[in-house]
Specification:
This protein is α+β, with helices and mostly antiparallel strands. 30% of the residues lie in helices and 29% in strands. It is built from ten helices and ten strands.
Length: 262
C-alpha cells in the first residue's frame, strides 16, 4: 500500500505530466499543499523531496518549488567520429557552420556559449602510461565548457591533454583565444600533419562530486557518466586524451555497429 507522501507525489507528478503545472510554474506553497491533501508539513516535504529527486521540480531558496524546465538532450553516437574526421578537412567556411556540440544537440552555432582555458602541465604517472610518454612530459591541458544560452549549466565538463611537442609547431594551437576552433581538435591536429586513425572510448558511471553536481546543475540522486576518450594517429601514437564528465539526466550514449554480411 502506498504511503501518504507517495500518494501526494503521485498526484503532483500527474499534474505536471498532464500540463496542469507547466515548466517554470511555481508549485502551491507548502501550507496550501498541507490544506489540499490534509497531511502534515513533514509528509508534504517528503513528497516534494521525491519529486525533486526525480528531477521534476527544483527548490529555489526563498522562493519555493518550481517545475523544472526540461534541459536540452544530448545524444553521443560513435558515428560522430567519422563525421568529425570528414569535417576536419572541409573548408573553413563550412567548418564554421557547425560543431560537435551542435551535432549532438541539434542546436545552432549562435545558440551556444563557449569557454576554453589552456594551461601547461606535466604528464602524471597515469597519463604517461596512457599516452606512452615519460612521466613529466610537458602537456597542454585544455578545459572546455559549452552550454545552451537559455540554460545555466554546461552540457559536460571536458578536459583534453595534448603532448606539447607534437603541437607547438603551430603557435595558434597553444592560444586559447583562437577557440572555438572551426573543425575542432582534429582539424587543429591536421595543421601539424597529424591524422586520426582510431578512437578508443571507455564509459563508466558514478555519483558526482559536490563540485560536479553544482556545476552541472544535477537533480539530487543523479549519476554522471565518465568518458575517457583516447585518439590515436596513423603512426599509432596517442595524440589526445580527453576526460569528459556527462550528466546522466540529459545524456544518451548511442552505439551503432555495422556488421559484414555472410
Amino acid at each position: 500500500m502506498a504511503k501518504a507522501y507517495e500518494r501526494i507525489a503521485d498526484e503532483l507528478r500527474a499534474d505536471i505530466r498532464a500540463g496542469q503545472l507547466q515548466p517554470g510554474d511555481r508549485l502551491p506553497a507548502e501550507t496550501a499543499l498541507v490544506e489540499r491533501f490534509g497531511r502534515s508539513h513533514v509528509t508534504v516535504r517528503e513528497a516534494l523531496r521525491v519529486l525533486q529527486a526525480e528531477g521534476l521540480i527544483e527548490k529555489q531558496h526563498g522562493r519555493g518549488s518550481f517545475v523544472r524546465r526540461p534541459r536540452t538532450r544530448v545524444q553521443r553516437t560513435n558515428l560522430r567520429h567519422q563525421w568529425e574526421k570528414d569535417r576536419a578537412k572541409e573548408s573553413q567556411s563550412q567548418r564554421e557552420k557547425t560543431g560537435a556540440t551542435e551535432h549532438d544537440t541539434g542546436l545552432g552555432v549562435n545558440d551556444l556559449v563557449f569557454h576554453a582555458a589552456y594551461s601547461d602541465t606535466k604528464a602524471t604517472k597515469e597519463l604517461a602510461e596512457v599516452m606512452n610518454v615519460p612521466e613529466g612530459t610537458p602537456l597542454l591541458r585544455r578545459v572546455y565548457r559549452t552550454r545552451y544560452q537559455a540554460e545555466r549549466a554546461p552540457f559536460n565538463l571536458a578536459t583534453s591533454y595534448l603532448v606539447r611537442e607534437l603541437v607547438e609547431g603551430n603557435p595558434d594551437l597553444l592560444d586559447e583565444t583562437k577557440e572555438p576552433w572551426p573543425g575542432g581538435t582534429w582539424n587543429q591536429l591536421s595543421t601539424v600533419g597529424i591524422e586520426i586513425d582510431r578512437v578508443e572510448e571507455r564509459v563508466t558511471a558514478r555519483p558526482p562530486t559536490a563540485e560536479e553536481a553544482e556545476e552541472l546543475d544535477l537533480p539530487p540522486g543523479t549519476s554522471v557518466l565518465v568518458l575517457r576518450k583516447i585518439s590515436y594517429d596513423t603512426e599509432g601514437r596517442v595524440v589526445d586524451v580527453s576526460d569528459v564528465t556527462l550528466p546522466g539526466d540529459r545524456t544518451e550514449m548511442l552505439f551503432t555497429t555495422y556488421l559484414e554480411r555472410w
